[in-house]
Amino acid sequence: MKSGFVTIIGRPNVGKSTLINRIVGEKLSITSNKPQTTRNKIQLIHTTQEAQIIFMDTPGIQKPKNKLGTYMLGVSRETLGEVDVITAMVDASKKIGSMDQWIFKELEGFKDKTPMILLINKIDEIPKPDILPLIDQYAKLNLFEEIIPISAINGENIGEYLSTLESFLPEGPQYFPDDMITDQPEKFIVAEFIREKALENLQEEVPHGVMVVVESMKMRENKNLMDIEATIFVERKSHKGIIIGKSGSILKKIGSASRLDLERLLDTKINLQLWVKVSKDWREKENQVERFGYQ
């Protein structure tokens, strides 16, 4: 059997979480068009008869603006040195930007040490004749063993990517049971789902400072119903009013959308109670960043 660890890196919103969710067949990493959606290193597991691939879904690499950003960059950099294969991902619909160039520079230190694959994502958004010139453009970097154009949203060439990955993996043990698709506890996944719905319903600067803590999860006796209590933390008092909305309208939207996703995930009816609290400028304070589990 082949087994190993794979990281997928790229600038924010390039489609990393969408790709991994499709591969494992379950939505476990949250997705959003907002920056800083993924904040932690999340292990997601794909198992076949021939191989087990453990994907590291990491924060998008970007220059840090606060203590949380410093933590996120550290997670992404550390993961590069821990894996058997590095996958870089770029957006076919965007030109090579300064952030892409910064990532490629980071990868130069791993050339000839760790196999690297480049995925050109979102090929569904560009004309087919533009794909080959893109591949040639990235091939000139002389960084990658393979370059594969894909569409994470519709699954195009995902099978080719998985086959290529397996060819680079070493022989090894099966680290996790066949039916296990993540190493994260339920509370973490639940908190992330609620944060995703907050990101979807909020605009401007507010989403960046949202943090969700699940206080309790309890199944009622003899009933197909789980009570979940969670607190949404924001950085400013004004943000608290925004996330609650007029007559609680925004918070109700977040709660309703979260409940639907959680019922599907946990396969039970959910009674979800949400509160909103202020933790002033928590992303700027190292002790607060650690308090929320980023350490």
Structure description:
This protein is of the alpha/beta class. It is 34% helix and 23% strand. It contains 9 helices and 9 strands. The strands form 2 sheets. The chain has a 6-stranded mixed beta sheet with strand order 2-3-1-4-5-6, with helices on both faces. A 3-stranded mixed beta sheet has the order 7-8-9. A hairpin with a 3-residue loop joins strand 2 and strand 3 (51-57). Helix 6 packs antiparallel against helix 8. The longest helix is centred in the C-terminal third of the chain and has 18 residues, at 249-266. The model is unreliable at 30-39 (pLDDT under 50).
Concise overview:
The protein has 295 residues and is an alpha/beta fold. The chain is built from nine helices and nine strands.
Over all CA atoms, what is the radius of gyration? 20 Å
| Overall 3D shape | globular
Number of helices: 9
Unreliable stretches (pLDDT < 50, length at least 5) are 30-39
Overall pLDDT confidence: 83
How many strands appear in the DSSP assignment? 9
Q: Structural class, judged by helices and strands?
A: alpha/beta
Strand content: 15-25%
How far from one another are the termini?
Answer: 34 Å
The secondary-structure element order is EHEEHEHEHEHHEEHHEH
Question: Strand order across the biggest sheet?
Answer: 2-3-1-4-5-6
Major sheet details: 6 strands, mixed
Helix content: 25-40%
